[in-house]
Amino acid sequence: MLRDGLDTVCQALKQAVLEEVPAYSDSANPEILPGLENHLRDNVSRITALLDGSRNADFEFVREYAERLAQRRFPLEALLHTYRCTHKVLSPWLRDIALAHADNTAHVRRVVAAVADFAIEYTDTVSTTATATYVNHTRLLAEAEGDRRTELLNILLHGYDESDSRAAQLLRRAGYLEQRQSYCVVAARSVEPSEMENAARAQRMADSISEVLAATPLRTLIGVRDNLVIAVVSGTRRQSGWTAPRSPLADRLVPQLKKVGPAALIGMSNDVPSTSHIPRAAIEAKLALDFASFAERVMPYASVSVRQLLISYARNRMQSALPTWLDDFLRADAKARGKLSATLRAYADADMNVLQAAKRLSVHPNTIYARAQRISDITGRNPLSYHTLTEMLLAADCSREA
Fold first, then answer.
1. Edge to edge, what strands does the sheet with 181-190 contain?
2. What's the DSSP call for residue 272?
3. Beta strand pairing status for 298-300 and 264-268?
4. Which residues pair with 189 in a beta bridge?
5. How far apart are CA 393 and CA 322, in angstroms?
6. Quick one: 12 and 137 in the same domain?
7. Residues 179, 236: contact at Cβ < 8 Å?
8. Owning domain of residue 101
9. Residues 347, 267: one domain?
């Protein structure tokens, strides 16, 4: 008898849900509405089976439906609202059936209360089951997407062999092998490097960079590598062979990256035309990061001078090749509170003009000559000559104590 009028109640359920939950009507997925109709019918069938005395309280159909909606990114709030709407329809339907088939000795209030309890318990059960399944499946999807993005980032940063069909297929599906694309690598860290050892803080910086770049039409692949936030950013270089190329990707990124908080230092590579150049771009971004400072928190690789690059390389790898007189000069300069090195730099900035150098330092020209003589006594070299001056400035800059 419970099965009488099932089509009518299913239709009433569908109408109530569509009126109160606009997400179904707004969805362009052709499978959403048929899926809803089938799910409502499954719910009615399960209710009638339970009231007929079935001991099978299996809600697998609820789990399957929640997984499908999670797969299609259908909002969980809309699903839960659906169950609230069904409760409004099912409760009076069950009450009317119960009263119609109750014998004369039944107490009306008890019948109504029992039906209400059943409807509430059923709605709570399917809502809880659907929520748990939806959240769990969403987490699995997020982990799978995270694994895919991690693998993509590793392939791009470490390079790949063109014979590796799997890597090529993964990049092609993600759109990284399309023509007329430019790529730029961004490297970032906290002003305090030790903070990057905290995974949560490093991830917050990655999220912050991802958020500011989300406002652009550029594609971003971001992750944390070796205590640095690394992002591979790509964008269209030109629409076709007949259109003018757009401005460099790095130039478009600078204004956005400056919006990241003041605790971040950021280095950027030059644009590269294909994924095969991304490993080199990553090296450029890390080098540029070394020159970022409070005064210039976002440092493009193109803004780093050749002199700065040479000094950085020498400071890290050529300490044993520095001249033997350098240590004596640095000790004397420290004792003079930096006046000797300041004199050399002022003399160079004044195009080797003693009078102009003295003016820059607000001292008498004879003071410049006296300091030059002292430097000569320490090093055995004449600092007023071009070659010696250049060597001394480079050696001082290349020293780790500089």
1. 219-225, 228-236, 181-190, 264-268, 298-300
2. B
3. parallel
4. 265
5. 12
6. yes
7. no
8. 6-142
9. no
- Tell me the pLDDT tens digit for each residue of 59-118: 899 999 999 998 888 988 999 999 999 888 888 887 777 776 655 555 666 767 777 888
Q: Is the pLDDT assigned to residue 240 strictly greater than 60? A: no
Tokens of residue 53, six digits: 């005395």
Q: Are 75 and 23 in contact (CB under 8 A)?
A: yes
Query: Would you say the C-alpha torsion 312, 318, 321, 324 has a positive or negative sign?
Result: positive
Dihedral angle over CA of 198, 293, 311, 319, nearest 10: -40
Residues 273 and 219 in one domain: yes
Pairing of strands 219-225, 298-300: unpaired
- Residue 296 has what DSSP assignment? -
Separation CA 184–CA 232 (nearest Å): 6
- Note whether 126 and 59 are within 8 A (CB): yes
Question: 235 has which bridge partners?
Answer: 182
Which amino acid is located at 72 in the chain?
R
Q: Which residues, at least 6 apart from 29, have a Cβ–Cβ distance to it below 8 Å? A: 72, 74
> What is d(CA 181, CA 186) in angstroms, rounded to the nearest whole number?
16
342 plus 237 within the same structural domain: no
Q: Residue 81 belongs to what H/E stretch?
A: helix 76-101
- Overall pTM surpassing 0.85 (yes/no): no
Q: For residues 330 and 356, state if they share a domain.
A: yes
Give the H or E element holding residue 285.
Answer: helix 278-290
On whether both 281 and 381 belong to a single domain, the answer is: no
Neighbours of 34 (CB within 10 A): 9
What confidence tens digit (pLDDT) does each residue in 322-378 have? Answer: 888 998 999 999 999 999 999 999 999 999 999 999 999 999 999 999 999 999 999
The CA-atom distances, in angstroms, between 151 and each of 148, 157, 186, 197 are: 5, 10, 18, 22
Q: Which two tokens stand for residue 34?
A: 């048929």
Distance CA 254, CA 249 (A): 9
Instruction: Establish if 172 belongs to a structural domain.
Output: no
Q: What DSSP character marks residue 293?
A: -
Number of domains composing the chain: 3
Q: Are 237 and 245 in contact, with CB atoms under 8 Å apart?
A: yes
Residue 215 has, within 13 A of its CA and on its CB side, a CA count of 11
Beta strands in 198-239 (DSSP E): 219-225, 228-236
Report residue 156 as tokens: 């791009």
Q: Which helix (H) or strand (E) holds 17?
A: helix 6-20
